[in-house]
Every structure is written in structure tokens, then in C-alpha cells.
Amino acid sequence: MKSLNITPLEPTTALKTQVYKALKELIGHIDIYSGDEPLRLDERALGEQLGVSRTPIREAISRLEQEGLVENIARRGAFVVRKTKSEILEIIAVWAALESMAARLATLHATDDEIASLRSNFTSFDDSEEAQAHIDEYSETNIHFHQTIIELGKSPLISKMSNPLFFHMRAIRASTIKDKDRVSRSVSDHIRIIEAIESRNANLAEQLVRDHALQLAEHVDQFVNYLD
Fold it and tell me: What does the pLDDT read at residue 7?
């Protein structure tokens, strides 16, 4: 298992919830598509690093398994789920529908200040050269950008439906952002999306967000061979 830096948890009555959130956050920031094998979750090592017994670790892993993020394989252990290429393409298609509708709703329901925050969080990367020079930081900003659009749509149902997809969307965006001209295209698309939402052009915002996601699907289909 990869070496992970984890801060021990403080014992509380909500320890099970803390462990669950810590593990979910942990695997959400790992490049699960690097290497040829899925990532194994070592209960003993995780318990030692979090400063808890293996019982809440097992309970958290079981909860993550119910959410489809972890798979228990008999006599082998628990592994973070890796999707096939066809599954990733389907996830992106569904995400495109949800995020594009969230963008439309954002033009109708988000406040001016909320929309302004979308730009202010992105201004440090309004130049593709700057983004390329700080690619890891930009990758996180890119992921947060799309998560923010979902939030600005202010639709609890869209948020609920997108949550299980976000884990894999985050992973595939992080693993492809360094490919070819993905950074420069990402920066350009984000600026156009921000401008459409700022002008409250619902049709354009919806179209741009949908097209942006489907471009990712096209890239995955053509170039991401390690998912085959």
C-alpha cells in the first residue's frame, strides 16, 4: 500500500463517522487509476495511522462498499473500485447531464456574489501557462470548479445524484489533466463557462458545461488505454 500521511483522530462519540469521512477523503485524493492493480486498503495500517482499532475501520470500509467505492474480495481484502473504460464513459455522460442542468439552474438561482466566487476561485489560473506550471494545484482547482457548479445549481436532487459519480469524475479528471492540450483547453472552457453564468445565459451555460464534459469523454475514449 502507498505510504499515506494521516493525522490520528480524537476519540469522540462520533468516531465511526470520523473514520468513515477520513477514509473517504483519503481515497478521494489518491490517483486510483495509476498502476495496473487496484489500491488495497490495509485495515491494520489504517487503524494505526488513524489511532483507532480495526473495528471502526471495518465499519467504514463496509459503508464505502455500500456506496460502491470499495469492493471486498474473498481472501484478498478490500480494494478501492476502479471502473472500466465503458463504465467511465457512462459516468461522464450522466455527469454531463447533471452538471449542465446545474449550470442552467445557477444562472437562475445563484446570487451575484456566489457567481463572483466562481471567478475569484479561478483567477489565479486564467492563463494556461500559469496552470501548466502549477499542474497539481490547477488539477485541484479544476475539480473544485466543477463541484462548485453543482452547488450553485441549488438542486438537492442533482447534488444527491452527482455525489456517487464525483469520486470517479475526480479521479479521471486528475489522471487526464496532464495529457496533450487538456490544460489549455480546460482553462479556455472554464473562462467561457464563467462568462455565460455571469451573464445569466442559461442556454449557453448549459451547452458549454455539457460540451466540456463530453470532450473529456472523447479524450478518454481515444487516448486512455489503461482502462481497457
Answer: 66
